Amino acid sequence: MQIRNTISNNGQAGTTVHGGRTDGWTREAVQALFELPFNDLLHRAQTVHRLHFDANAVQLSTLLSIKTGGCPEDCAYCPQSARYRTGVENEPLVPLETVLAAARAAKQNGATRFCMGAAWRGPKQRDLEQVAERVRAVKALGLETCATLGLLREGQAEELKAAGLDYYNHNLDTAPEFYGEIITTRTYRDRLDTLARVRRAGIKVCCGGIVGMGESRAQRAGLIAGLASLAPQPESVPINDLVRVEGTPLEGAPKLDWSEFVRTIACARITMPRSTVRLSAGRAEMPEAVQALCFLAGANSIFYGDKLLTTGNPEAARDRALLEKLGIRPA
Ligand code: SAM
Ligand code: DTB
Ligand code: SF4
Asked: Which of 109, 163, 169, 277 could pair with 135 as two cysteines, CB 3.0-4.6 Å apart?
């Protein structure tokens, strides 16, 4: 009964309120959302979406891997871990001018945010200075800046903030009890600590996860509940459908049914009504109709550009055509 009350309340869970934001989503309440009939779930998600956003606008973020491969961590999904033979080589930091050229091209193509990713456990001091230089330069082009560099130590987030970093991406990745089957070299707690440092430094939080790693529906609900319970909730929530890369331990993970992916997006939208929900990795293999359902379920951002970090993404021109077909304005 409690769950019914919670989910019939237009997506606003009712237990704890911080600064006007609700964050009391239990895993059980999220699981009850997952179990709604598909049409009911989408209707609810779209209703919540329209309370807080223009339903016909989608934000465009372009990714660039500024430091590829050779990562010491063991994330089972990741082609950049040095532990797996995936064909991704360990490369040096991309020079400032190359980053700037990519950022200019992204802006020219209509992206509003430029996200720089590095395959590090976390940045060393020298790394951080070099990233700060790149953040300053990208920001000066008039783009929003985002970085994903791994775990941050005390003081590092402040340095990034001072350089003009708008967002820091650091994902919870999955439910706490499934986490240990995916990553052993950093804990869920480590991730929460980095997120707290980002928040304290006044940088906006981009935090999401991956589905399709062999987790159960209850664990997908656990991921969403974990994200929704962050206080304040993340400004940006990337939902990735696992890109199964040959050579990684998850290369043979069973593909998640499209309807379950759309449900995950809808649950993120309902539980994090004011967050931007990004339809992230996995679009290269996703039919346009499924992407359209994700927008209907409340996704209002995509990674835009021909490449994610090391894997493919739909061509920018195709994405522009898709948005045009749906009457969606790039934002
Ligand atoms: N090394 C940093 C870290 O892990 O914190 C930043 C880069 S890492 C590649 C950023 C995120 O990309 C991961 O947390 C994960 O959610 C996502 N990701 C990596 N490989 C993926 C894959 N094969 N499919 C879907 N998402 C993936
Ligand atoms: C996020 O959640 N997804 C992006 C971004 N944050 C950095 C990364 C997706 C990576 C997919 C695999 C690859 O291209 O290497
Ligand atoms: Fe390294 Fe990040 Fe890949 Fe994990 S997800 S192996 S930390 S690059």
From this structure: 163
DSSP type of residue 284:
G
Is the N-terminal amide bond of 92 cis, ω within 30° of 0? no
Distance (Å, whole) CA 48 – CA 64: 32
The count of other CB atoms within 10 Å of the CB of residue 19 is 7
How much is the pTM? 0.94
Burial 97-128 (b: 16+ CB within 10 A, else e): eebbebbeebbebebbbbbbbbbbebbeeebb
- What value does the mean pLDDT of the chain take? 94
112, 116, 117, 120: CA torsion to nearest 10: -150
Q: Is the dihedral of CA 165, 55, 284, 224 positive or negative?
A: positive
- For residue range 18-34, list pLDDT tens digits in order: 333 445 899 999 999 99
Angle at 14 between CA 13 and CA 17, to 5 degrees: 105
Q: Is 58 helix (H, G, I), strand (E, B) or coil?
A: strand
What does the radius of gyration of the chain's CA atoms come to, in whole angstroms? 19
pLDDT for residue 329 is more than 90: yes
Top mutation candidate among 61, 62, 63 for ligand 2, by most atoms within 8 Å of CB: 63
Who lines ligand 2 at CB under 6 A?
63, 79, 117, 148, 169, 171, 208, 238, 240, 243, 280-281, 308-311
Structure tokens at 255: 């593909």
